[in-house]
Structure formats: C-alpha cells, structure tokens
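User: We ran a pulldown and think these components assemble together. Before we commit to crystallization trials, I'd like a predicted model of the whole complex to look at. Sequences follow.
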Amino acid sequence: MRHFLVPLYAIIIFLIFWELLVWVNDWPNYKMASPSDIWPAFWKFKVLFFQYGWDTLWRTVVGLFIAVICGVFLGMIMGFSKVLREAIYPLLVGFNAIPKATVVPIIALMFVGQHDLNTVLIAFMISFFPIAVSVSIGLSTLEPEYRDILRSLGASKSLIFWKIALPKTLPEFFGALKVAVTLAFIGTNLMEIVSPHGRGLGALFDSGKTNSDYPLMFAVLIALALLGIGLYYVVVVLEKIFAGWAERSTD
Amino acid sequence: MSLNVKKDAIIIKDVTHTYKTETGLLPVIKNLTMSIPENGFTAVVGPSGCGKSTLTKLISGLLQPDEGEVYLSGVKITTPRPTVGMAFQNPVLLEWRSIIKNVMLPLEIVPNKLNLQQKEQRAKQLLSLVGLEGFEEKRPSELSGGMRQRASLCRALVHKPKVLILDEPFGALDAFTREDLWQVMHNLRKEEPFTGILITHDLRESIFLADEVIVLSGRPASKQFFVKLPKSKTPKLDSLYTSKSIDMLKTLRKQIEIAQSQQEQNK
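Assistant: Here's a predicted model for the assembly, 518 residues in total across the polymer chains.
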C-alpha cells in the first residue's frame, strides 16, 4: 500500500504547488495553464484524447517492438563477431548522432501520406540504438568460463546462447529498454506534430497551438506523461518477471 | 613410465601446443607425456603462466593439440565430451538459477534417461554430500565464496563424469575455507569415484589431496618432476605438519624454483 500512496501524495503535492504558482503570479493560461484549466480542456476533447492517445500508444509500442527485434539482432551480431562489431559500430554511432528531428521531414517525404508507417519508423529509429549497444556489450563481456562450462559438455552454440548468453544479457537489455521507451515516445510525437492532418496526441497538441487553446496543449503534455509512466512500468513489471534475479535484496 | 591405454583414464602422449599471438608463436606445452590411472588423482603444479590451464583445455577437448594425442578411457579426444566435469577458480554459477538448478545444469545438456525428479534427487544427494543441504533454493549471490565453490564442485560431478578437471578451484578462497574444501574433496572422492586432475599453485594442497604430483617446467611446459605420494585412508590436516610432509614440500618447492628460473631464461 505504501508503494502506492507515497507516489500518489507526491503527485497531489505537485499539483497543488503548480496551481498555487500560477495563482500567486497571476499568469494567463497562454503563459502557464494551471491544473484547474487542464481538466476542462481534457473533458471538452475527451473522445479525441482517447482516440489519439490510443494512436500514439500503439505506434510507440509497435516502433519499440521493431526496435527490440532489430536492436537484439544487431546486438547479437556485434556481440558474437568482433569483425562485424568493428564494421557496424561507427555506422551505428553516426546514425544515432543525427538528431531525429532532422530525419522527420525526410521520412515524411519518403513515405508521403503513410502517417502510421512514418510515425512507427521514427519511433523505431530513435529507440533501437541503446538496445543494440546493451545487447552487444552484454554478449561480448560474457566471461569465457561460462561458455567453457557448457562447451566442455558438448553443448551447441545455440544451446549456450539460450542457457547462458541470453539470460545473462537480460538485465542490461531491460535497462536499455527503459531508456528506449521514453525515446520512442519522443519519436512518435515528433512525427505526429509535424505531419499535416495527422492523428495522435502530437496532432492534438499541434491543433491546440493553431487554435490558441493553451490549456489543451498542457492537457496533451499530461496525457503523454501518463502514457509514458504506464509504458515504463510495463517494462518494469516485465523486468521483474524475466530478470528479477539481478535485483539484490536491500535488507 | 609406460602408457597403458586400457588401464589409464587420462593419457597425454607427446603433446605439443603453440599459441599464435600478434608477436609471433608462443609455445606453451612441449612434448608433454603423462598419465593418470583410473580413479587416480594427480596434482599438476608449476610456475605461473607455464601452460597449466592450456593443459585442462586440451584434456577437456576444448582445444586440440598441435602435436600428440590425448586419450580419455582409451578414446582419442577430438571434441568436448560429456564424460568430463570441470570446475574453475571462478565458480561461474548462473545468478538467475537457484543452487539446485545450477547443479542440475549439466543434466540438461548431457544425454541421460533421468526424469526431473531423479535429476533433483541426484543434485540434492551431492549438495548434502558437500554440506549444502537446505541451500537448494538459494541464489548464488546469497552464498559465501566457499559455499559457491562447493556448489560448483557438485555441478562438475552431477552427470557422473569419468574425469574431473579442477583448475585452481580453491585459489580464491581464504586459507581456512580452503582447508574445509580439501576435506570436502576427500569425501567426494570416497563417495563419487572419479579420475581427477588438479591444477594448483598451493603445494600443501597438492600433497594433501593428490596421489601423485607432477611439476611442470617453465614455459613451454613439459614434465620436470614426478612423485607418488603415500596415502592414508583417513587424511588429516595434521599430516601436513609431519617431517615427511615438510620434506616433500621442500622437494617440490626446490623443483618449482628450478622451473621458474628456467622460465626466466626462456623469456
């Protein structure tokens, strides 16, 4: 119960502080909307919030899913072969160094009108890097004795991967996935904001901007934060299930 | 010494092995011949970096010798074989498995007819033999270094290997824990017969545990000195402090010094 109440109180205190801050400074809502402005803004567009929230969520999750598959695959290649690691790494670092905001218009032009595809693609591109790097490091730093224990019994390479290399890499993988979740949301929203006639929370944010509906913009930010928290904790739960062993008990 | 292919469990015949490094060829083992009889236990000592660990890899089939042959129970070794068990200085237990699941790992790889219950029973039997009953469901991180090494020994023996290869298994433990584990080794040998080879830097360990001690020369390693030890049925730590044992330790110490100075010269 404490695990639930402590964060809840923190959120309530934060909202009260926010409300007071706006009230004391007498800020107009285009400078800073207060929590009491946000609720009506949400209620007015509640149907859109759920529709677009769903759009944003599934695009992010699909983008992440592809990032996990490609990231793990790339990480495996780099983790197992030193030559391929040396070949791929500079390319990967270079690709990651390009700010994805600059890639957004390129992708938007490349697949004109395919809004879903564009969005998923950016979410994927922005989030696969940490996954690939963590998996490759996890695999390449596997102590040789671990391999020898199984190899001396005549185990095949794939058996060694499933029994040892994969589980041993899981904590690093989930660490990277937590970073990737946040990144994927950034990617999704970048594309949703930029695309004309787009859907998703990013598009709702953009329409708030064009219509000078400032509380709506803040309401979108809160909705994004809620989605982010939700997805993050899904990853935490998955981590507990699959890599809970890596957690040291604190008592 | 004559090699008896039928009787000896481990035979290393005229083995030479060279590593290729960036600076050129590095010969680590040269014309090494040795054998260990069935259910015998031989300790191999020698200067640091003289090729002892390479020797364990050759016996386990993880490495192929450039020249010469390795036989286990009369069969020439060309690939790793499930009749081998290994334990290293690092116990390499899998953190995501409980102790009993760690011990059962080889049974998931080596072909066998045991069902899950029999596998568990086998693992439990070994764990209680090394004094780890009640720790079956613990994680490796919850155990002390000595206990982890006990579990590692169980894993090396769970599939009833004919040959047990120990590569400095007690090297990282404190002196008293090490002595405890020497007793554990004697228990294991009594209950679970195997042919063993022990790589060690500890001369006391070698004469307390083994039937025979081989001193390897400096790199490239070959057999420099060999001694058969008298064995009592109930070994006690006190026996290490008798004048006979001390003389033996002095002899071995002398041999190590010779090997070390030879390795210095070869550099």
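The radius of gyration of chain A is 22 Å. That may be worth checking against your pulldown data before setting up trials.

User: Thanks, that helps.
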